[in-house]
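Annotated sample (chain length 173).
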Amino acid sequence: MDQRQVAADPYSWPYNGDLRAANTALVVIDMQTDFCGIGGYVDRMGYDLSLTRAPIAPIAAVLAAMRRLGFHVFFTREGHRPDLADLPENKRWRSQRIVFNDIALDTALAEYNRYTRTPIVLSDPALGSRHINGVFHIGDEAAFLSAMEQGLHLKATRATTQTVLEPEAGYTP
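Output written by the structure step:
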């Protein structure tokens, strides 16, 4: 057995010194444009990229050595489902999106109305028990209302002080 270890705290790794390409891989996590590249999220927010770019050179050196020695290398990056249902709340807010996943319409409207100037209300409180799914951009009220009309068979009537959602004529859920 090839006895090699990496000095680490609280103990050297691996504990038994069995560090080989057959049982060890390098995993590089989240070294993507959003976090450390020009034009990525961190850069657009105005943060100092030198902090997030600092590990690039050391990772490149380790990467070159691991490849030279025949170790497997895996890269991970943050990703989300196409419908963004797994997007954390803080990232939804940053991207100005609201994700509703099987939420009662009255609850969804209470959340959506936090971001509108003209509230959207229900003509009948019983409509609030219908459930909604989808990803909506804050500020794109037309798309949100279109989804209500198409998906829940509701008609949106706009007025100066509010938009009223009422059942589509002749539709029975």
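Annotation: The chain is about 30% helix and 20% strand.
Annotation: Strands lie at 25-29, 72-76, 97-104, 120-122, 131-137, 154-158, 163-167.
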